[in-house]
Specification:
The complex is a heterodimer of chains A (296) and B (238). By secondary structure, chain A is α+β, with helices and mostly antiparallel strands. Chain A is 43% helix and 17% strand. By secondary structure, chain B is mainly α. Helix content of chain B is 67%, strand content 0%. Chain B has 10 helices and no strands. In chain B, helix 2 crosses helix 3 and helix 8 crosses helix 9. The chains are: A alpha+beta (296), B mainly alpha (238).
Chain lengths: 296, 238
Amino acid sequence: MNWISDRGVDRLRNAAAWPELDARYLITGVAGRGGMATVYVARDQKLDRDVAVKVVDFADHKGSRVARLIREAHILARLDHPGIVPVHDAGVLPDGRSFYVMKLVRGRRLDEVLAGEAPRAFRLDLFTRVLDAVAFAHAHGVVHRDLKPENIMAGAFGEVFVMDWGVAQDGADAEPAIVGTPGFMSPEQAGAREVDARADIFALGAVLALVAGREPSPALAAIAAKAQHPEPQARYQTVEQLAAELSRFRNQQRVSAYRESAAEQLLRIYRRYELPILLLMAYVVMRLVLLVWAGV
Amino acid sequence: MSFPATRLSVVERTRSLDEETRRVAWATIIEAYWKPAYKYLRLKWSLGPDEAADLTQEFFTTKLENDVVERYDPARARFRTYLRLCLDGFASNARKAERRLKRGGDVTIVSLDFQTAEGEMARHEGSVDADVDEMFYQEWVRALLERSVADLKQFADASARPIMFEVFARYDLADEGGVRPTYADLARDLGLTAATVTNHLAAMRRQFRQIILTRLRDLTSSEDEFEMEAARLLGGRR
């Protein structure tokens, strides 16, 4: 046997990992690799469209990896929302690995968007759409447990998809475990304690801190900090509350997370009513000019 | 893949009462690890080719059999990690003693092709600056794949279907500089239909995966170690 180069090694590893899918799906490349699964790009020859196929890397003898991917597919199938990637098909390969077929999302990951020069208003628009999707999941009893910019895709037209629901907690099937990503993981997750929707709110706070950028306004920083409070009961209790607070911030209204000074309050009120204030001032100035002119 | 509960790992088989079983087990370990060990000594310990070859010889013919495998506890580390740490200790002691082994002493020389290994090092891509631990893993994977490809060829020949291996070789073992052929190219060159090429390739990849997992099962000492290695080899971020 001849020596195999590094590239050859990679090629052979890919060959061994190649999923033997139904003839309907023709694999054309690898979209990404995760902790326990690989996402392939494939051509759905029946419907003549590109799709993404997530395949578990290895079928362990207990079947937990296989079951987890199938479970993820079922969760996705239940969460029919524009911000959650739709699943089209699922199954088990001849070698025992599970897979599911989903919409191929084209775009950039949120961490890539945030690394660029996108204006803050645009970044906050994306974040608001993330909140919509997560709130929808929570309403269906699903807690994502691994929200982070790398698991959020932003499409070319501002659409957003929350991805990778592999460690999601689905209603009653709570199994306390250390899942998540350091930096985005709530203290209760890190401590393998029971978690609820507020664990996702913690992660959303960490994402918001990144969305806010390097020099965030104090109010926005306070919203992110409140969402990331170590005690779950001190955070926003629902994603809707966080969304409402963010909406108040964007509308130049007072936010509950931040106690502003009198000067900041005046500045905020001015910004909120800038046009009417300017019109009023113009009117007053004009009247004064008229009065002075009439007096002369 | 099924998981035969009664199958002993190669490490366990080195303790067998049957001499032939022990001999094959030692040969399997040496085959899987000697080249990664030699390259590791050359790169991490900056040993010259002769010194690295001597230490590799001694490690695999004397040290390994006498101490290393005997003291291995699967509960504490995976075998590859353990072996690398033992190699570090061995090289460190050798350096302290300023001892340079001479070929042909009381060491049993096994047939290890150091010249080829040395030639391969010259073709490594960025290996000198690479993480040596990662390099040890990469070399271990390379050795595993080389043996698995040889097994696959043997399987195809034994099944009187060498054409199946030919399809695999041309597509998945294609020359580095060359462009990977399309299924249609392969079909034309080998006088097959494109559907046959697809089927042959799928069958060979399936068998290749099976061979790799069997070898991996052999080289690991517990179910957990096997599954971690398999998940890393066949998936994971690269």
